[in-house]
Amino acid sequence: MLTVKNLTLNPLLREANFSVERGEILTLMGPSGSGKSTLFAWMIGALSADFQAHGELWLDDERLDSRPVEKRGIGILFQDALLFDHFSVGQNLMLALPASIRKARREQVEQALASAGLAGFYASDPATLSGGERSRVSLLRALLAQPRALLLDEPFSRLDKSLRVTFREWVFAQVRAQNIPVVLVTHDDDDIPPGGRVIQLAGWQ
Ligand SMILES: Nc1ncnc2c1ncn2[C@@H]1O[C@H](COP(=O)(O)OP(=O)(O)OP(=O)(O)O)[C@@H](O)[C@H]1O
């Protein structure tokens, strides 16, 4: 279970508290500027020095909030699918793999691409992909890194309506299969997983 406890991000957010179970997708909503992305920045360990944080982040019985980014194991996916354009699609995915499993990596990357309907894209230049294809590659990259929890920051907002529905269902199936806690930020009620919990992030006031 991933838990944010008594978190204050001064001067933006006061006393946020929530928990997410393994395999659960918790939806986080709130007005623009209420601090959703800043909360994610704090959770991954990349908070701007403009904010002062007080609070605790737990994953099961491990306290994470004082650990550096690379020791937290929290993956994040942004609305802009950030890929390295000077590497191929396959190389972008290879970069995500933990060193322990790099031996079998090409095969694993090919399998992951196929599972996302992207068989044959290994050598492609990311700049030639559609928005939806880039989104899928970026989610695959986040998952291949085997994160212990995953934060999704408006991952569907740039996709057109039909692609959005298909991609959303595919994302939910992928993250549920990993059985990790997931927090999803969105402004769109349609993105809330059926039966999923929703919390509203209020601003400082
Ligand atoms: N690095 C930063 N330094 C200073 N202020 C920042 C920084 N990042 C964000 N802010 C400010 O903090 C506030 C919250 O921003 P944040 O991006 O967390 O909101 P949000 O809830 O994710 O908004 P949206 O729904 O529009 O994406 C905004 O007023 C923003 O200008």
From TrEMBL:
Q: Which SUPFAM superfamilies does its entry note?
A: P-loop containing nucleoside triphosphate hydrolases
Q: What keywords were assigned to this record? A: ATP-binding, Nucleotide-binding, Transport
- Methyltransferase as a keyword of this entry, yes or no, is no
Q: Which GO terms describe its molecular function?
A: ATP binding; ATP hydrolysis activity
Residue ranges of every copy of the ABC transporter domain listed in the record: 2-202
Q: Organism's domain of life? A: Bacteria
Q: Which Gene3D superfamilies match?
A: P-loop containing nucleotide triphosphate hydrolases
Q: What PROSITE patterns does the entry give?
A: ABC_TRANSPORTER_1 (PS00211), ABC_TRANSPORTER_2 (PS50893)
- UniProt-recorded name of the protein: ATP-binding cassette domain-containing protein
Tell me what organism the protein belongs to: Lelliottia wanjuensis
